[in-house]
Write a structure and sequence with these properties.
Elements lengths: L19 E2 L4 H4 L3 E12 L5 E11 L3 E5 L6 H8 L7 E9 L2 E2 L5 H10 L1 E4 L13 H6 L10 H13 L5 H6 L7 H13 L5 E5 L7 H17 L3 E5 L3 H7 L2 E6 L2 E7 H6 L4 H10 L34
Bound molecules: adenosine-5'-triphosphate.
Length: about 325
């Protein structure tokens, strides 16, 4: 069994070395992906220790891809490497193709243009990504492209974005310091900032992990809303398979820095083929009776998850 809450947890199942690619899976069936990762390998420079190896995955344009795997499997590192946000201590090789260019090879100016306006990221623990000694407004303004500081246009833009992410009292939030807003509000603010440049791809690394269950549901609903209204492509890391089932069209399963299985969410959750995926799903969808009511969970849609749901779900992470 996976040891829930242990960063060094390992699956009991012995995982064969081959990678399973399913018919209809993201890697084989995508004609025009917005992002293609090929043979991405991440190694610690000091020791050569491997964080991820030979990662291949595609994000179909307008689709949402969920990246799942136990703690330490390399999910966040892969996300950070897409925008070259990993520090110097990690060697990165392979390709990250975005709109016909390999991000890993871009000059700084082109890379910054992509970071500014094409690919945005939101993280878990949003408050820690805000500067504690500056108001939300002063930080938000920096995200607005072409809007002069203090301009009426900038204010209108910020208010409109905050309204879009469901902030009810945007004037107060703009004037607040990070410690004066809740975790849920901070995540909405981060999402508003991320959306300010109308990105084509949003990378959400455990966007709800630091939030309480009630707020998690609201933030997920918001992510779904903006994904649909803005036709965003999405790469989402999550330990919450309910959220992945809800939001993602495709799932990529990582173990110890390797993709062990990928395919449509329906296939992976209904019929996981790899022993590791089976163990991962069992660990999450633990329980036997609650929410067997198909009207109130996805067990009808995903029979392998039968007997599961928010009241019983377990997070596969530290
Ligand atoms: N800068 C770094 N220096 C040393 N080790 C690192 C560094 N970044 C990542 N690692 C190691 O790489 C592995 C993968 O880490 P990563 O955070 O990507 O995993 P994860 O799947 O996102 O985990 P979690 O679900 O807990 O966030 C871990 O063993 C981690 O300790």
């Amino acid at each position: 069994m996976l040891e829930i809450g242990n960063r060094n947890a390992t699956a009991e199942a012995q995982v064969p070395p081959e990678i399973l690619h399913r018919p209809g899976g993201t890697q084989t069936a995508v004609a025009d992906p917005i992002l293609s990762i090929r043979d991405l390998t991440l190694n610690l420079r000091s020791s050569g220790a491997q964080i991820a190896s030979g990662i291949n995955l595609d994000i179909p344009r307008g689709s949402a891809v969920g990246l799942i795997g136990e703690s330490g499997s390399g999910k966040s590192s892969i996300c950070l490497s897409i925008l070259r946000l990993l520090g110097q201590s990690i060697d990165v090789s392979g390709e990250v193709q975005f709109n016909g260019a390999d991000i890993l090879q871009l000059a700084t100016r082109e890379l910054n243009a992509i970071r500014r306006s094409q690919i945005a990221m939101v993280f878990q623990d949003p408050v820690s990504h805000l500067n504690p000694v500056r108001t939300i407004k002063s930080q938000f303004k920096e995200c607005l492209i072409g809007a002069a500081q203090g301009s009426v246009v900038a204010n209108a833009q910020m208010l409109s974005l905050l309204a879009e992410v469901g902030i009810r009292d945007p004037e107060r939030i703009l004037a607040a310091y990070p410690h004066e807003i809740s975790g849920g509000q901070a995540q909405r603010v981060m999402l508003a900032m991320a959306l300010s440049a109308s990105p084509k791809l949003l990378i959400a690394d455990e966007p709800t992990t630091a939030l309480d269950v009630r707020v998690q549901a609201k933030v997920l609903e918001l992510l779904r809303k903006v994904r649909d209204s803005r036709r965003l492509s999405l790469l989402m890391v999550s330990h919450d398979l309910d959220a992945v089932a809800d939001l993602c069209d495709h799932v990529v399963v990582l173990r110890h820095g390797h993709v062990v299985e990928q395919g449509s969410t329906r296939n992976i959750l209904n019929n996981p083929r790899h022993p590791y995926t089976q163990t991962l799903l069992r660990a999450f969808f633990d329980g036997t009776s609650a929410l067997d009511n198909a009207a109130n969970d996805r067990s009808a849609e995903f029979p392998s998850a039968r007997g599961t749901g928010v009241t019983q779900r377990r997070m596969i992470h530290a």
